[in-house]
Design a protein that fits this description.
The complex is a heterodimer of chains A (317) and B (285). With 317 residues, chain A is mostly helical. Chain A has 13 helices and two strands, in the order ααββααααααααααα. Chain B folds into two domains: 39 residues; 233 residues, Orthogonal Bundle (MetI-like fold), CATH 1.10.3720. The relative contact order of chain B is 0.14. Classes of the chains: A mainly alpha (317), B mainly alpha (285).
């Protein structure tokens, strides 16, 4: 008996070591990024994040244009992708005839499995000329005077990057939103129908029940957009400037690492790129933890949440 | 359920909104159709035998192929799987076997966090971990980066699949006096094997299309790279460097590469999907 217990202990320890290894990798990533970015942290302090000059020759490093570009492009993607993704989720879960549900879910997931580099390639040769045509048309109208649409129509720039990100995060948001909607109890919709609700009104009840999880889905999409690298690098224009114009070539945090890392000479330059990576790591870590908590609170335990419509239904009965 | 407006108006709003949802599906499927059609039309026309059998030609010469990049990609995926599968499966076993322990919760959370870290960040981590000490770009550095991206997917799917194995199987083994290790490796793992294989396929389909983590780990190579300590070409990095070059002939090859890549990734994820569906049917039946 004793021997057997010893064997069980060894099994637990060995498999446990590998579980620990997964945690060590995460901590290791954080530590390694911090270790290599100590030099610029000491040299520039917080000024690194407010400076707008990025001049490796003079060893001047200000990362504001990259943060601006990452936030701007991700915001475009979330604003455009959220309504489309919710529409898809609602259509597949609530409206589509049952024979159509699986094929549609399959097709939207195909969008998620196409590699980033392929979106980038397609973006350069198809999306950019298309965007340029739109920008040229807008440039001929009085809208051109607005800061949002100012500057020459290059095609490559913030608008192209925002659009490719929209295409890429839509399937992520819609697949999580689908899970959340599926976890909403049928009784919610039935109660609404029993009160004489139209189909859309019943859907609104389901949406309201799952609102926390749906918000989590959107936050998850934001995390994806912020970390997305290749397609953005190929379309955003790679020009470190802070501009409100959708037409302007700009830059993003992931893109500057992708472009300059292997050519960075000097410890401060390399360290500055590591520091941008460190901040990307921290931002996505926070966003992903937050979205997972939000999604779990609805998709995992729907029965524990108070049902907002149930009392009304009970009264009616 | 405010009954504002007449019933006719509410019905109209309902039809408009459900119609808008249907439109959202169409709006999302248009880019999918455009991307696939564009890749297929440009890619198939650019494919030839040389693409699969020849090395890249020096700049300025037309022709040549991506033979070394195709082999390099397969090498990187194979190495990454060899590193990631044992870690993922064993950590998944621990999390499933001791679900109440603090280490299981930590491991599960770590896997979820790891899954959300941008691939470019994983790339610079592998640079600091492998490239700097070795003082050169290498296939093994690229494989480490890709393996880190595979681990969380394998861990979580192994955990889920082990939990699906009926408790009676485990109890029968333990009742016969077998050790926990013997029950797990002799009974539970074989029963969960098809599902775990699916998880591995899903992980492979995800890393097969990755470019960002390879840019400064495996780097690139215009020639064959023997062994695992040399800079190694990959399909994705090669597509990238051709796509941003100014030459038409290189663009043509980038399209051919993208077509091969998409076919590869979609085939793997299709296989994974079929396997999942068969598993589901077995479980219900």
């Amino acid at each position: 008996m004793l021997r057997k217990r010893g064997d069980d202990g060894a099994f637990r320890i060995w498999t446990g070591l590998f579980a620990l290894l997964v945690a060590v990798i995460v901590l290791g990533i954080g530590f390694e990024l911090w270790r290599h970015s100590r030099l610029p942290i000491e040299k520039f302090g917080f000024g690194f994040w407010t400076g707008t000059d990025w001049d490796p020759v003079q060893e001047e490093f200000g990362a504001l244009p990259f943060i601006w570009g990452t936030l701007y492009s991700s915001l475009i993607a979330i604003v455009l992708a959220t309504p489309i993704a919710l529409g898809i989720a609602i259509y597949i879960v609530e409206i589509a005839p049952s024979g159509l549900r699986k094929p549609l879910a399959f097709l939207t997931e195909l969008l998620a499995s196409i590699p980033s580099i392929v979106y980038g390639l397609w973006g350069i040769f198809f999306l950019v000329p298309f965007v340029r045509a739109i920008e040229t048309a807008v440039a001929g109208t009085p809208l051109h005077r607005l800061p949002l649409f100012s500057g020459p129509p290059y095609g490559i720039g913030m608008l192209a990057a925002g659009l490719i990100l929209t295409i890429m995060v839509t399937p992520f948001i819609s697949s999580v939103a689908r899970e959340v909607l599926r976890a909403v109890p049928m009784a919610q919709r039935e109660a609404a129908y029993a009160l004489g609700a139209t189909r859309w009104e019943a859907i609104k009840v389901a949406l309201r029940f799952g609102r926390t999880g749906i918000f989590g889905a959107v936050v998850l999409g934001l995390g994806r957009a912020i970390g997305e690298t290749m397609a953005v690098t190929m379309l955003i224009g790679n020009n470190p400037q802070v501009s409100t114009s959708l037409f302007a070539p700009q830059y993003s945090m992931a893109a500057v690492i992708a472009n300059e890392f292997s050519e960075a000479s000097g410890d401060v330059y390399l360290g500055a790129l590591f520091e941008i990576g460190l901040v990307l790591f921290v931002i996505t870590l926070l966003i992903n933890t937050a979205s997972r908590l939000l999604i779990w609170s609805t998709a995992r335990a729907p029965s524990r949440r108070p049902a907002p419509v149930k009392p009304a239904a009970a009264e009616a009965a | 359920m405010t009954a504002r407006g007449s019933a006719a108006r509410r019905r109209l709003v309902s039809s408009i909104m459900t119609g808008a949802c249907a439109c959202a599906v169409v709006v999302a499927l248009v880019p999918l159709g455009l991307v696939l059609a564009y890749i297929a039309s440009k890619g198939i026309g650019s494919l030839d035998l040389a693409f699969f059998t020849q090395l890249p030609k020096p700049h300025g010469e037309t022709g040549g192929g991506m033979a070394n990049a195709i082999v390099g990609s397969l090498k990187l995926i194979g190495l990454a799987s060899a590193l990631a599968v044992p870690v993922g499966v064993l950590s998944g076993i621990y999390i499933a076997e001791y679900p109440g322990s603090p280490l299981a919760s930590i491991g599960r959370l770590a896997a979820d966090v790891l899954n959300g870290i941008p691939s470019i960040v994983v790339g610079i981590f592998a640079y600091g971990l492998v490239v700097l000490p070795m003082r050169r770009f290498s296939a093994i550095a690229g494989a480490v980066a890709l393996a880190i991206m595979m681990v969380p997917i394998v861990t979580r799917s192994t955990e889920e699949l082990i939990k699906l194995v009926p408790a009676s199987l485990r109890e029968a083994g333990l009742a016969l006096g077998a050790t926990r290790a013997r029950v797990t490796f002799g009974i539970i793992l074989p029963a969960a094997f098809p599902g775990i294989l699916t998880g591995i396929l899903v992980a492979v389909s995800r890393i097969a299309g990755e470019t960002a983590p390879l840019l400064f780990t495996a780097f690139n190579n215009q020639f064959w790279s023997p062994g695992i300590d040399q800079p190694t070409a990959s399909l994705t990095v090669q597509i990238y460097s051709y796509a941003i070059s100014p030459y038409d002939d290189l663009h043509r090859q980038a399209w051919a590469g993208a077509f091969v890549l998409v076919v590869m990734v979609l085939t793997i994820s299709m296989l994974a999907r079929l396997a999942t569906r068969r598993l589901e049917r077995m479980r219900i039946g």
